[in-house]
Q: What sequence folds into this?
């Protein structure tokens, strides 16, 4: 498992109050966003398309995950 996959797995598990199906969708969205060099806004847009995810929750997760990734890279 490379650094990207490890980061995504560790941090996606910190997201609570969601079924495993939604956590998987979040991991996929984060992975795709990282792979294409996307921004937190782009990630939030992708996350908000996940069924039952509010726009506010999508923004919170996107900013959190993007910030953690940048911090880990530093």
A:
């Amino acid at each position: 498992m490379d650094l990207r996959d490890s980061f995504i797995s560790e941090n996606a598990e910190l997201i609570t109050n969601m079924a495993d199906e939604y956590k998987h969708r979040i991991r996929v969205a984060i992975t795709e966003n990282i792979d294409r060099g996307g921004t937190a806004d782009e990630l939030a847009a992708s996350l908000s398309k996940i069924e039952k995810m509010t726009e506010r929750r999508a923004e919170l997760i996107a900013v959190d995950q993007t910030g953690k990734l940048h911090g880990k890279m530093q």
Remarks:
- The longest helix spans residues 55-73.
- The chain has a mean pLDDT of 81.
